[in-house]
Structures are given as structure tokens and as C-alpha cells.
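If your schedule permits, I should be very grateful for your opinion on a structural question. I have a record of one protein: its chain in single-letter code and its fold written as C-alpha cells. Kindly check, if you would, that the fold set down in the C-alpha cells agrees with what the sequence suggests. I remain grateful for any guidance, and I place the record below:

***
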Amino acid sequence: MKNNIYILFFALAIVLNSSCKTNQKRTVVVKKDADTIVTGVKTENDSVYALLRQQNSWYSSRLSIELSSSGSDEISAFLVNRRDSIIYLNINKFGIELARAIFTPDSILMVNRFEKTYYKGDYSIITRMYGVSLSFDFIQSILVCEDFKDCIATSISTKTVDSTLLISIPRRTNDRLHLAIHQEITVQRANGKIVNNWIKDINTQQVANVSYQEFENIDGYVFPKSYTIELPGTKINIKTKSTKVNIPGPTSLIVPAKYTPMFPLDGNR
């Protein structure tokens, strides 16, 4: 159970290795089939992928999660997401709470009810555990089926195939985290939603894939009903229900005094 809880909380850290942010002005070269179009990107808020994001404030949903690695396990979770602010996750099995976590742009607070341990700190724990970097926006974008916030790419090629748009990005970099990824995105042309997000870390050559199988429209916003995260040796299937939009949810977490740190004080496992 311990390993499954760690996988669930930190799996998104492995899917990609960074969100991509910059305030610099750049020129993006977009190759559309055989044609080349030059698109100016003026500020961090002007993204080639603006249509892949929707500006609702709150999102909450109940999740059914199947974890498959050497064996399999099924658990449930309650997710609350406030854009650019907080992600709250409550994990349970058979109605018994196993763990709870709160992600903010700068910190992670997590308690393991099963083992009476907790973690309170920044995202560097992900790097120490898995050798990759993680950001709040990275997690949030995957949960709500969106592209990474304020990304800048040097070249982008697009191709229309039936009802989808294939977007190929050979290299996206994050200078602050010293990371680079190769990304292949498939988007539904009808609603601008990502249906598949293939990612390879250029430095480590790790490959991961996130696919979204179903969608539902809630008060004018489109969210995935089911999606799959595939990692080396691990597959996570997630189904959503009772999804709500723009309705605030719980975001608090208190660490009991008797709980002990998940990791030694030096941060090593």
C-alpha cells in the first residue's frame, strides 16, 4: 500500500519533467503541413495553445483509480482544484481514508493515514525520489486536460487528421529547471481538448503517455470523464464522476501531532 500511495501522489512528476514558463519575448515558427507560419509570442500570457485552456476557477470530482504495476490495486479519491492556487486530494479505500494531500504553487503537504506519517516541504522531494522536476502547474494541467501554462517552443509542426489536430513539438525547454522535453499532442478539433499527450524527456529518454478517453460538458466547460497515465512499468486508469465547476470545495489539512515525517530530516529516503 505504501508504494501505491507514493505512486499516486508522485506519478505526475514522472509523466513530464517540467512545466514551461518564461517572461521573455520569442518568435515561434509553426510548420503546418508543407507551409511555414511565423507567429509572434509577446508575453507569457500569449500562448500558441491558448485554446487548449479554459478559465474556470474551481473544479472538483470523485475519482475511481486503478493502479497497475507488478500487481493491481483499486482506490478512490476526491479531487478539488482551484486554478493557479491549490489542489486538494483525499484518497480512500472501502470508505476508509488512506491519505490526503494539498499542493500549492510552492509547497506540498501530505499525510499518510495508513502509516501515520506526513511530508511538508517543497517540490524538491520529487527530484530526490525520481530524479525529475515537478511544478504545480504541471500537475494541474494534466488533471484538467490542458497544455502547460505559458510554454515557449522554438518550432511546432501541425497536421490535420480527420477530426483531430496533431501537434509535434521536438523541443520545449525550461531554463530554470534545466530540462527539455519532446512532446506529441493530439487535439480534438471540435472542442480543442487534448485526447493524447505523449512526452519524452530528452535528457533521460524516459517516455510517458497521457490519454483522455471521454469528455463531458459541465456548465459550458469540457472535462475528461476518464483518462490513463502510462509510465515505465506503471499504468494508472482514472474515471471521474460527480464533477462540479466553479463551486468551492475543501482545501484544509491538519497534521496530527503523533504523525512522524515520511523521510528523515535530511530529506533522503
